[in-house]
Each structure stands twice: as C-alpha cells, then as structure tokens.
C-alpha cells in the first residue's frame, strides 16, 4: 500500500518533445532477402515512420537503429547496458491495402535503419520516413567564416546539442540518454550561445535541486535513478554544473532569480564539497574523461581537475553572492577558493615549472591547460607552464592529448597566451586525435571518443571547440548581467580571412564581423541598447587604428588597441 502524494500540484516549466522535421532517406540498400539498410544521410535522434502496402496480415517487421555499421554492412546496435532487444522496433502488419506506423514512447539515436522481415516483393511495397525528434529550441545565433572546416565544426556541434535535448540535456541519444552533469557543464557555453536555453535549463536546475541529499551531495546523473551517489558519485568536475549554471544564467540572461531560488541548496552543496576535502584537495570519481588512449578515467591524479573545478565554482558563487548581497558567503568562499589554489599549487606545480602528478605516464595537457584557463597559475610560473604546454602540443605533431575537460579549454588557453597559430593547427588537424579526423571519416556530429570505433557518434562534450569559434575566431565573448557588458576580441585569425557572428541577447542583437586583407583589417561591431562593449582591434599601436567618433580608447595591449563603445554600430579599421 502506497500513501498518496502530498503537497500542491504545480505545472512544471517543461517544453514538450516534438517531431521537428521529417525527411526521406538518402539511400536504401538490399543486404539480404527481406533485409534492407536505410541511410538517412545524417546522424539524428528520433525514429522512423514505416508505410507498407498489401503485406499479408501477421507479417512481422523489425526496424533496428544505429549510428554506424558493422564490417558486413549491417547496423551496429549493441550495448552492455541493455540486455536483449536494443534500439529495435517491431510492427505486425494488419494486412490493409496501406498502413503506416511509428513509435510513440521511445526515441533512438541513429543514422541507419535496418528493416527486416519484408517479403520478397517489389521495392514500392514499403517506404521509410525519418523523424527528427527533440525539445524545440530557437536558434539565437549564427557563425560564418572563410574556413569551411570551422563552419563544419559549428554545424556539427549544433546538431549534436539538439540531438541531445529531450527534456533534459543528455549524453547520447543512442545509449544512456542520461543527464550527465559534466557533459552539460562543458556544453553550456555553446548551448546558451547557440540556442534559447533559459526555460529548459531552468527546469533542469530544479532537477538538480530535487536530486540533492539531505547532507548536500549531488549525483553525477540528474535526474538520478539512484546511481551516482556514495563512493561513485563525488565528482566536482561534473556536479559543479550547479553553481556554473546559476552563474551563467546571470551572465547570459541577467537572471539573478535562479541564484535567489537555489541559494540554500547551492551553498549546501558547496559546503558539502568543502567538508570532504582531503589534504586540502577535492577528490573525484571521474576526472578528464576519455583522453586519447584511455577508455574512461584518465591516468593522472584526478584531484587536480577536481580541485580546479571546485575553485571555479566557489568564485562563481561568490560573485553571485555579491549580486545578492550575501557578504558572509562571499568572504567565506573566496577564502576557501584561495586555500584550494594554494593546496593545488603545492601538490602539483613541480620544480620543472609545470603541473604534474605522481601518476602521470607522460606530460598531461589537461593538467596544465585547466590551471591556465581557471586562473590558478602563480604569476611567476605562468610563462613556464604555458611553454610546457606548447612544447608538448608541438612534440605530438600539433595534436591534442586531452579528454573532455581539457578539450574545452585548450584552444582558448593557447590563444590567451599568444599562440593562435598553434590553436589553428590543433583545430584543423586531420589525423588522430582531432575533429578533422572525425570529419574525414564521415562524421556529421561530434563523437564521444577520439578513435573511429567510438561508442557514441552523437556526444557533444568533446565538441566544445565551437565555443572557441564564437569567442576567439569571430571574437564575441559574453561579459555579464545579460550582455550588459561583453568583449570583442578576435585573437584566433590564423588561417581565416573573415568571420562573423551575432547573437540575439535579452537586450537585443550583439554582433561582430571582421575581415583582413593585404590592405588592412576592418571590423564592425553591433552593441544592443543598454550594453557596453570593450572592443579589441588588432594593431601594433593605437595610432594605426581609425576609430569612429564616440569610441573611447582605453589602452593598447598584446597587439590590440582597446576601445569602449555603447549602443550602436561601430566600424574600426587598422
């Protein structure tokens, strides 16, 4: 006997999951008598609608879905997570002159559909229609540039993100379909730049709060079916998505209500993380997941990345505490963050001038890129840490050696410290491991793993190079308070003649378009009402720049002349 639910029933701010588009297959191939392979021509989430004519009653059709093929050309649709039938629909024909069917209570991740059970009749006895299914999200930004591969990166990432939006942000539409918190943390900057995510992520913030235990722990999967707590759960690189999302809500949407609503559960979570430090460091069950050569957890001491992510989460929350006037929390979390920084550097910053752990099999790019990106490196060591990162990337033939965490910051870290040429070389690398390797082997989405036998081919957490496209190649970077401030700094122009991007913010459209030729550099910046932009114009000195009236010159730094401009459209040349 179960007792009735208590409390008041409230509508949840949850958009429906819809059929977004329908399209015909790209090609159909006969594999064997009664067995056909349908290629939809794109990797997608959803299902197939089958229509048959004049098939005998009782004919049993099977539709098996998969993202890749086996060597014999049949669909690959197996997993250790689900025993028995997996990614397969069955339909028993009624014997009518024409009948159509599609599933209503499940979706699949696939490019290919293998149809079995067809009688040896003419090809016009059946047809398949692909149905693209996900939570509807408005696209709020655009990106274009002279490098076609960069445009492919952007399209592939956007497609992958949408394929993983089904009420919650998931990890893969084919396999677990889970709300892995780390995946969402890494993907949030791209999601919120590309799509209108406020409603959906507001709902998921509620799921995060609902998943919290009484002592403050969050699971690594939200919503959780019970897994991800206890010894398997503590993973700050994953669960600090909670403070990160709340901070990003204010940065992107100017929404401090999320911080007010979640303040109690948010601080309870962070206090729980601080209560379980060991030797002043955070501990984790995961780390820099899926680095090249490793099928899951990385080989290095994962306390480094765990501590770095907790450090960032404390500072993010302290900043929101300042917005809310929670001075006691601000002071306490800034002090705790400084203690984490000291402990991390004492434990992992070596005498040779870069970060390493006792478990390292070789140099680990993530262990150095994350501290650089998160502001953890002491001033005295910044040059040596960065030089070590550059040497390793070059030693590997301009290849990355990062899993999901390091990949999200590597290109931006290289640009921030003056090596956009190396970032370009890594981004456009066509051999393993790299995005170009996927592209040249037929990818149209981001994959979970770097090798060709990647389990999932529709997994966005390795595709975060798209953030670098928006922020460094085009050069538009969100500032704070719903784009009340933002920065324009195109510092990744190597190999690119022109780039442009625009985003529909809560204040209006912000955008930048630049081009460079042998004659010089031109950039147009659009600033919405109520916003102020800091514009970095490439130039050796301010005297080389022609700025419009009303643009206030601030300084010259690192090959850029820096200006401040209010609402309007501004054109700079150098």
Write the layout of secondary structure elements.
Blueprint: E1 18-23, E2 27-32, E3 35-53, E4 60-66, E5 68-69, E6 75-76, E7 88-92, E8 98-101, E9 108-116, E10 126-134, E11 141-145, H1 148-163, H2 181-194, H3 198-210, H4 236-239, H5 241-253, H6 257-275, H7 303-324, H8 327-348, H9 365-374, H10 382-395, H11 404-416, H12 420-427, H13 435-440, H14 465-474, E12 476-480, E13 485-488, E14 498-505, E15 508-517, E16 520-527, E17 532-538, E18 552-557, E19 560-565, E20 568-573
Parallel strand pairs: 13-17
Antiparallel strand pairs: 1-10, 2-3, 3-8, 3-9, 3-10, 4-7, 4-9, 5-6, 11-14, 12-13, 14-15, 15-16, 16-20, 17-19, 18-19
Helix pairs in contact: 2-5, 3-5, 3-6, 5-6, 5-7, 6-7, 7-8, 7-9, 9-10, 9-11, 11-12, 11-14
Write a concise keyword list for the protein shown above.
single chain, 574 residues, alpha+beta, Jelly Rolls, Glycosyltransferase, Maltose phosphorylase, domain 3, 8-stranded antiparallel sheet, 14 helices, 20 strands, globular
